[in-house]
# Entry
Amino acid sequence: MTVSAFAPGRVNLIGDHTDYMGGAVLPMAVQMGTTVTGEYRADDPAPARVVLRSDRLDGIVEVDLPVLDPSVIRPRWGRYPAGVAAVLGSTVGFDGTVSSDLPIGGGLSSSASLEVATALVLGAPTDALELARLCRRAEVTATGVPCGIMDQLAVTAGVEGHALLIDCATEDVTPVRVPDAATFWVFDSGQARELAGSSYAERRTQAEAAAAIVGPLPHASMAAIASLVDPVLRARARHVRTECDRVHAFAAALSACDLVRAGELMLDSHRSLRDDYEVSTPLLDAMVEDLVRIRGVHGARLTGAGFGGCVVVLAEPDVTLAGTRVQPSAGARLVDPPNPQPPPNL
Ligand code: GLA
# Structure
């Protein structure tokens, strides 16, 4: 029996480092993504294992089931499928292939895309929120990175032609139509970032320390934030608070097709990530500065965790840029068989 699933990547238009603080984000699933295809052999007497080969990543992943500790699997990319199998408690393995056209580690959620496609092949529930929660747990288990829900939920809940306004406190998803006049592009900095080795967890700890003093950051008053004594906590809190406001303002601007305003908000977001959250790099800053000088470009910002990865650009439709055009796309789905079957695995 063959099972095949496709999961898109995502680009975050605005709202970074807000998801794990219960704030707002506005990502969209893109047309590029990951396909995982697995062959199940019901009569195989060999020990249960998942075997995966990738068209882009080196090595063969061999994971014995049930998975005990996904964080030690090598090659490292195998930790994501292993994390999913661990969270699902999978005991029936498959021989499979992974193919992807996403930049790896480049800020377009190649890892969430791999997790979600693997989960569908392993017979996970197809409900977008349930699937996203499960894959977020898999990522934390596999990498130790205390990420939020944004990437996995954007990948599972994507709607063609729309970005997704997500309230990460309630996990409510509201599709926001992307007008034809708005085109988005991504530029890969080539600086691949390894989230576990970066300061992601440290930023989260600092934001939580600020929230312990002034309350949930998305709703804290600016006066309370200004009264924080520690300048680092003050800056981290200011970013989360103002970024959540920018997400809502951006969603409104997009709906009103006010692309000049939307572009300004993207640039403000980049500056806040650079100065208050300190997750940009000189290369990302230079790319944003160069891109916003181009005629017909409304705004640009780093997207995702930062420390490298991609820049997202909002431009007029008749402008052709040297990056990759990203289109708002549908979320993850089983390709073959197209409807959920009795899971071979559960
Ligand atoms: C990574 C995480 C997300 C989110 C972003 C920053 O992509 O996986 O949960 O925190 O960084 O917005």
Q: What stands out?
A: The chain has two domains: 2-176, 179-326.
